[in-house]
């Protein structure tokens, strides 16, 4: 594998990590529609262990704004409810003995605008990370050219590949941002 191929491969891996991190951050921002992602990783202290809600039961959606958690062991029910309430996600919880229903209240305009600004800032931070990764790889490519480890043609082709990878990642970031903003706008 040439130095150019290695640089492009490293860049693509770094850009994929930036996109995945952004998607994870966006999944933790609550919108007007509830998502199982909102609750599944909340830690619950039960049986002298710290377990996630998804390890203690199953989650399902009940339209329009309710998440249903069916806990496999009824003894864990109070601990799960307490953990959901302690997470301060704006959910009101009720139970019927074996099932918890967590209902999401509607977002107020002020809170919606705060979240939209946060999404914009988070998205811009991801784009800045993409540019930093690109600049780092371009510097390494320039160093390789200076040490005669890459030809001028290799450098030109590699720069094109780097730019295409950056453009694909930026398009993905834009799509994630638009989807989250659309979800918040509902």
Short description:
With 186 residues, this protein is an alpha+beta fold. It is 60% helix and 17% strand. The protein has helices spanning 3-27, 53-56, 77-86, 109-146, 152-185; strands at 43-46, 49-52, 57-62, 66-71, 91-95, 99-104.
Sequence stretches where pLDDT stays below 50 over 5 or more residues: none
Total individual domains: 2
At CATH level 2, the architecture of the largest domain is: Orthogonal Bundle
CATH domain topology of the largest domain: Topoisomerase I, Chain A, domain 4
Mean pLDDT level: 86
Rg, nearest Å: 23 Å
The CATH top-level class label of the largest domain:
Mainly Alpha
Written overview of the protein:
This protein is of the alpha+beta class. It folds into two domains: 3-28 and 108-185, Ribosome-recycling factor (Topoisomerase I, Chain A, domain 4, Orthogonal Bundle); 36-104, Gyrase A, domain 2 (2-Layer Sandwich), CATH 3.30.1360. It has five helices and six strands; from the N terminus they run H-E-E-H-E-E-H-E-E-H-H. The chain has helices at residues 3-27, 53-56, 77-86, 109-146, 152-185; strands at 43-46, 49-52, 57-62, 66-71, 91-95, 99-104. It has a four-stranded antiparallel β-sheet with strand order 3-4-6-5. A two-stranded antiparallel ribbon has the order 1-2. Helix 1 packs parallel to helix 5. The chain is elongated and about 70 Å long. The mean pLDDT is 86.
